[in-house]
């Protein structure tokens, strides 16, 4: 990106166009020298731009101390930057900054207008899905993105389908992908090129492809050059010289617990009781770094993709399927290479001894979470072979059952101690779908149940990640790739505390542990207790920040390494190398520190650069997963709706309010004509419903946080859009 130099510094801020007499819409950008000077003097702020998806005139950049957000009002103020871009913002009008030295960033009054003066990095893909509109007598067509945060784009007619000008109506419902190529300072419209036609709007595959392209998820087939890096002579077997270097655990009772549909099995568990009553517990992770050699084409593509992306109907893998579903996946009854951490634990979960190393395992059974759950719920039962997947005859079913029960008992203790020690978990409702095997259309949906079997696996993965973080940081204080979780934004927490005080909710937001404790203290004891907790959990998750990968050599203060939610000083990701590139780097650091792998050739800067890239890709993949779920729910509402559900109010605005639809865990905004609102500072709306009998007075309905309402979800005219309609309160309830 180079700053536009159409205007010399003397013209800055004036609306003199660089192109004849055309009026400037946007200011020219500052030069990079002016920017670095202004940042040093504290007159400019750098940060990531967030544009409100519901009100695209509003945008925000975090303040330098990250305690609050700085508001940018209107499209002109954003100066052609798009959502996610790293921008530099001017705090005061430019001429004032030249004459006064008081515009230090800390003193920003609310009413100061802020403008983007430079784009440091265009993080937004500059690709958008949308629709084409024919403009008579123009050499271009108008592209309207579905995402209103992206400007409308002029595209050359030559890019459009051949019969577009003669039959524009045929394309009203066709979804296209367009890429912005330029956005001149004297135009409200960007220039762009049409990349491709996706197909009918509202259909799952075209919509999915649009999401993937817009969020820069690489779903192309792996190139021959990449596939050349994979083992050639199949079926592959472990070379004898590799066998000799590793701890052989193939005779141990080791098994996997995963979702029933999982094909990339990253982790396996083992647990055997020792004569003294303690336990030998192992976490065994697929040894992906054995197959992915640092610096080869496979490594390069994996590092670019950085994560597998899980859509409702499919996975876009980080690694070729031969690795993620076969050679690396810890499938049952085959020898697999692993990286293990093995502890001696007391029944309470206290670590007495710890061993890291490369190993070989042979999983004796692939359990689903449902299988493990049924074992936990029936500790005395003798399971028959028909009730479970095939089990290695070397290990009787009963041995596996006992290991699951022992792991569950230890996990319960580990978990209890974590929360006593001050950890926090914000469980948000997660929607899952049942799909038709032929059409892959949603047949039904349900809220995913997070149960003891999930918690069992989670506890040992956390234990392994924490152990690994401590080990690699000790060995590589300047190079370790760790994961930190900054504390929530202070200003938003203060506002939340104020709201809770007004609503009479006793909640302590002063630390992660106290917040967890308050959330798990019942809110009343009726059938809606859990709904109130869900709403409050949603409210508490808004001030939370994202957890981030970082290199320890770059973040100087050790207290900034901390993971807020887990409440641990050091944390990393080690347990999912098939689907996360960060874990592969961690495996390489670990292998190097144990002298069972090559020496690390990475510099602090390279680790930090990769960490930052993993953060970007992780955020994009999270958004893509949410959009995939929204897409399928939109189709479900269209195919199976209208759907009725109870909903609970989460927040109240001037002319609308947000609800959590309890049956489906989705959030929706309901717009209404209001008779009165916000009495004092307490957020509430009063709705008036005309009475059914003309002589009766209207029925009042008061809406405030935690109000229970009945809603109906129904499809809109626009493809896949649906709205929540408030149902009339029963007169008896008023």
> What order do the strands of the largest sheet run in, or round the barrel if closed?
12-19-18-15-14-13-20
- Low-confidence stretches are 1-20, 94-111
* Helical fraction: 25-40%
Largest sheet: 7 strands, mixed
Global structural class: alpha+beta
The domain tally reads: 5
| CA radius of gyration | 28 Å
| Overall geometry | globular
Give the terminus-to-terminus CA distance.
60 Å
The number of distinct helices, counting runs of at least 4 residues, comes to: 17
Q: Which percent range describes the beta-strand content?
A: 25-35%
Provide mean pLDDT, rounded.
90
Beta strands, count: 32
Organism: Oreochromis niloticus (Nile tilapia)
Keywords: Cell cycle, Cell division, Cytoplasm, Exonuclease, Hydrolase, Magnesium, Manganese, Metal-binding, Mitosis, Nuclease, RNA-binding
Enzyme class: hydrolase
Subcellular location: Cytoplasm; Cytoplasm, P-body
């Amino acid at each position: 990106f180079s700053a536009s130099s159409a205007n010399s510094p003397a013209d800055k801020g004036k609306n003199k166009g660089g192109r004849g007499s055309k009026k400037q819409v946007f200011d020219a950008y500052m030069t990079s020298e002016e920017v670095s000077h202004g940042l040093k003097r504290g007159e400019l702020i750098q940060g990531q731009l967030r544009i409100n998806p519901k009100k695209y005139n509003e945008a925000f950049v975090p303040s330098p101390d990250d305690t609050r957000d700085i508001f940018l009002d209107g499209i002109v103020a954003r100066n052609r930057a798009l959502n996610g871009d790293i921008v530099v913002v001017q705090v005061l009008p430019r001429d004032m900054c030249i004459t006064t030295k008081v515009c230090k960033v800390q003193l920003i009054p609310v009413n100061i207008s802020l403008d983007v003066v430079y784009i440091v990095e265009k993080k937004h893909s500059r690709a958008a899905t949308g629709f084409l509109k024919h403009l008579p007598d123009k050499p271009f067509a108008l592209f309207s993105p579905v995402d209103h945060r992206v400007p409308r784009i002029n595209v050359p007619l030559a890019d459009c389908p051949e019969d577009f000008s003669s039959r524009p109506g045929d394309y009203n419902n066709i979804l296209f992908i367009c890429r912005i190529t330029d956005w001149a300072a004297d135009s409200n419209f960007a220039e762009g090129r049409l990349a491709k036609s996706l197909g009918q709007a509202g259909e799952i595959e075209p919509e999915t492809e649009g999401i993937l392209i817009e969020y820069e998820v690489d779903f192309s087939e792996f190139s021959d050059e990449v596939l050349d890096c994979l083992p050639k002579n199949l079926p592959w077997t472990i070379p004898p010289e590799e066998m000799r270097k590793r701890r052989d655990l193939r005779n141990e009772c080791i098994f996997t617990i995963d979702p029933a549909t999982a094909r990339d099995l990253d982790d396996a568990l083992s647990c055997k009781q020792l004569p003294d009553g303690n336990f030998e517990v192992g976490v065994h992770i697929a040894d992906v770094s054995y197959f992915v050699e640092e610096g080869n084409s496979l490594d390069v593509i994996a590092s670019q993709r950085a994560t597998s992306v899980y859509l409702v109907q499919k996975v876009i893998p980080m690694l070729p399927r031969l690795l993620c579903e076969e050679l690396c996946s810890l499938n049952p009854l085959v020898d697999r290479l692993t990286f293990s951490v093995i502890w001696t634990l007391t029944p309470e979960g206290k670590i007495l001894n710890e061993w890291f190393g490369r190993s070989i395992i042979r999983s004796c059974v692939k359990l689903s979470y449902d299988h493990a759950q049924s074992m936990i719920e029936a500790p005395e039962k003798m399971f028959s072979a028909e009730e479970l997947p095939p089990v290695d005859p070397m290990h009787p079913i009963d041995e596996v059952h006992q290991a699951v029960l022992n792991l569950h008992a230890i996990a319960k203790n580990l978990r209890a101690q974590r929360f006593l020690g001050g950890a926090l978990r914000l469980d948000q409702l997660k929607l899952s779908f049942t799909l038709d095997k032929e059409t892959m259309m949603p047949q039904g949906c349900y809220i995913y149940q997070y149960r003891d079997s999930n918690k069992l696996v989670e506890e040992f993965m956390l234990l392994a990640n924490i152990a690994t973080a401590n080990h690699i940081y000790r060995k590589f204080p300047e190079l370790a790739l760790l994961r930190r979780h900054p504390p929530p934004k202070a200003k938003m927490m203060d506002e939340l505390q104020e709201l809770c005080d007004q609503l009479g909710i006793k909640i302590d937001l002063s630390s992660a542990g106290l917040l967890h404790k308050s959330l798990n203290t019942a809110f009343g004891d009726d059938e809606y207790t859990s709904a109130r907790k869900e709403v409050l959990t949603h409210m508490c998750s808004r001030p939370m920040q994202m957890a981030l990968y970082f290199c320890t050599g770059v973040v100087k203060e050790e207290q900034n390494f901390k993971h807020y939610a887990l409440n641990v000083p050091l944390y990393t990701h080690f347990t999912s190398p098939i689907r996360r590139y960060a874990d592969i780097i961690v495996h390489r650091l670990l292998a190097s520190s144990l002298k069972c792998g090559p020496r690390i050739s990475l510099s602090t800067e390279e680790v930090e650069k990769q960490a930052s890239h993993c953060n970007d890709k992780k955020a994009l993949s999270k958004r893509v997963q949410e959009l995939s779920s929204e897409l399928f729910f939109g189709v479900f509402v269209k195919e199976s709706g209208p759907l009725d559900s109870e909903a609970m109010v989460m927040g109240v605005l001037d002319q609308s309010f947000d609800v959590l639809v309890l049956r489906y865990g989705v959030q929706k905004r309901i717009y209404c004509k209001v008779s009165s609102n916000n009495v004092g500072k307490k957020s509430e709306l009063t709705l008036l419903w005309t009475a059914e009998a003309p002589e009766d007075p209207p029925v009042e309905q008061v809406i405030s946080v935690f109000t229970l309402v009945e809603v109906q979800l129904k499809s809109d005219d626009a493809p896949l859009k649906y709205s929540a309609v408030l149902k009339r309160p029963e007169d008896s309830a008023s």
